[in-house]
Amino acid sequence: MADFHKIDLNLLRVFQVILEERSLTRAGQQLGLSQPAVSYSLGRLRALFDDPLFIRTPDGMLPTPKAEQLAAPLGNAIASIRETLRHLERFDAATSSREFRLSMSDVGIQTFLPSICEKVQQLAPLMRIAAERVPLPEIEEKLRLGQLDFAIGNISALKPVMNSALLFHDEYACMTRKRPGLPARKLSQQKFMEFSHVAVTSTDSSYVEIDESLRASGLHRRIALRVPHFTVIPQILQRTDWMVTLPRGVAYLLNESGQFQIYPLPVELPHIASTVYWHSTFDNDEGNRWFRQLLVETLRPH
């Protein structure tokens, strides 16, 4: 068992970053340390816990079973220390250079980020934002460990385990390239099923909910293509007769050129709840509260 009196808390941060990066070089870059310094710290960690902790492989520095066992409690400890220190600081948005990390889908970045950046520049010119697409299974842990501050989207799996604020509801529509012979305003269920479809498997769970709801209504789409993001959809639809089912607001965003036909779905689907999520550990953090209020005021329709 590690002797508490011999633990340098800086080593715990080194452990966490190596775990995240799977590379001593990248860990050093993030920590502002040379690779030899990171290697030295890793050596101290190995002696402290009497375990190799990380094994060098072609896929990077992979954690041992003991390192995986340590990951959650040490991550929670670091998050608690970080939260305690933040409580000691008075947050001033006008002068803060704090970085806020957001997880959004590609279309969320395209839709939400410009207005967020505009508002931040006005109110907090030194503040920094890091936006990324975090895989759904990783979002909960990263929010809990403080590696993410917020996740934004239709992520129903987070509702039981995270604090949240609803931004808006949207409904689904379907979209295809304009061409002769299309219905003018509405699609029948039969016509909808005649199309080949594109399924977007983005970071939230919407695509699963779409298929489940359609099957419950007795409709089975023929999926011609699965893609991981929305941004390629216009180029795909321009060159095919395929159809995509997507949030109505996203459809309008992707149809700025007016070359696509947008229809209401011929079957009722549950509405999309665009929501901002954060972990309860940071509920009373002044900066987190300020940024979360900015998100709600900026993204919630007025």
From TrEMBL:
<protein>
    <submittedName>
        <fullName>LysR family transcriptional regulator</fullName>
    </submittedName>
</protein>
<dbReference type="InterPro" id="IPR036390">
    <property type="entry name" value="WH_DNA-bd_sf"/>
</dbReference>
<dbReference type="InterPro" id="IPR005119">
    <property type="entry name" value="LysR_subst-bd"/>
</dbReference>
<comment type="similarity">
    <text>Belongs to the LysR transcriptional regulatory family.</text>
</comment>
<dbReference type="GO" id="GO:0003700">
    <property type="term" value="F:DNA-binding transcription factor activity"/>
</dbReference>
<dbReference type="Pfam" id="PF03466">
    <property type="entry name" value="LysR_substrate"/>
</dbReference>
<dbReference type="Pfam" id="PF00126">
    <property type="entry name" value="HTH_1"/>
</dbReference>
<keyword id="KW-0805">Transcription regulation</keyword>
<dbReference type="InterPro" id="IPR000847">
    <property type="entry name" value="LysR_HTH_N"/>
</dbReference>
<dbReference type="InterPro" id="IPR050389">
    <property type="entry name" value="LysR-type_TF"/>
</dbReference>
<keyword id="KW-0238">DNA-binding</keyword>
<feature type="domain" description="HTH lysR-type">
    <location>
        <begin position="7"/>
        <end position="64"/>
    </location>
</feature>
<keyword id="KW-0804">Transcription</keyword>
<dbReference type="GO" id="GO:0003677">
    <property type="term" value="F:DNA binding"/>
</dbReference>
<dbReference type="InterPro" id="IPR036388">
    <property type="entry name" value="WH-like_DNA-bd_sf"/>
</dbReference>
